[in-house]
Amino acid sequence: MTVRLCNKNDLASIFDIYNHSKIDELKYEDRDFMLLPLEKDDMRLGGLMESDIYVYEERGKILGFGAHHDNEIRALFVYPESRGKGIGKTLLEFLLSNVHGQPYLYVASTNQPAKYIYQGYGFRVTETFETTYNEIPVIAQKMVRKDQILT
């Protein structure tokens, strides 16, 4: 297992992981969403590309990726079939170790499983607001890590 900085050759894998995972974070919403592939989502792709992107690689296959820009954790995605194996937690811990200052992230307010994991790392909801995904309204929350103790 390796967590390493992303390179240009990893982009196809990053797009594939995102495109297999993005709708999962919205599956608790009361409406259905159509995937807007990352490579066609100018806003999210632009935010990702200005970030430090890291991949989780095992036996030559990229299974997940995470990204941060300054204090903001902008991405944390794992292939659906690779979840439950600690890959997401490994990536989150790696990102947290590379963020200087108080880390924060944004999450769909209905994504309780992700929020539960983030809360275990000291993140707390500080703001609730409306945003959109593929032109459909979504209630999102900003979560800020208040304490520096890993649990």
From TrEMBL:
PROSITE patterns: GNAT (PS51186)
UniProt xrefs under InterPro entries: Acyl_CoA_acyltransferase, GNAT_dom
Classification via Gene3D superfamilies: 3.40.630.30
Domain of life: Bacteria
Ranges for domain N-acetyltransferase: 1-145
GO MF entry, a single one: acyltransferase activity, transferring groups other than amino-acyl groups
Protein name: Probable acetyltransferase
Native source organism of the sequence: Bermanella marisrubri
